[in-house]
Every structure is written in C-alpha cells, then in structure tokens.
Request: fold
Amino acid sequence: MAKNDDEIDPESSEAAETPGEQGPSDSALPKVDFSTFVLSLGTTALYQLGVMPDPSSGEKSAADPLVAQQTIDTLEMLREKTRGNLEQEERKLIESLLYELRMRFVEASR
Reply:
C-alpha cells in the first residue's frame, strides 16, 4: 500500500518526538536543576567579566562590568528568594560562587 505524503513513518528519523521524550541530541545535555542553573549564570558572569574565552572563537571577550553586575545581582536575588529552601550543597554552591564572582568583579573593575 502506498503512503500519503501526510503520513509519518514512526520508525523514520523524521518522526516527531513527543514532548519530554529524549532524542539523540538531547542525551548529551545535563539535567537542569538548581545547581546547573546557578553554574550556568556563573559561567555567563565570568564570560561577561572577560575571564572566560568565547566558546566559539576561543578568544577572551572585552569585559562588560555593567552587564556582569546585573548577572551577579540576579544570582544574589536567587539566593535571597530561595533562602531556607536550598539543600546544604546548593547553599554552599551559590555562596561560594557569589564570593568568587564578586572578587573577579573587583579585579575587572580596576
């Protein structure tokens, strides 16, 4: 029997995946939880401070302390809004990350 162009073969690679189902490209991504989210923001702030190189070019970017300060403030806001709701390891992570980012901010602002 011939297939219509509108029919999708469930075994073909072009078949649409249902939401929440992991495809081959999704398997390499880490699970998103509070810690990975906080670390992502921290990495962004380090990039904005000119500490980390651009992932695509490998070159350090020019520091943008104003934008970095906003990212650090966002982490501070998350710390305040989640106070009392974090596990000990999550609390330690955000505290140490904020300390490190503030020290790097001071260095970049000189």
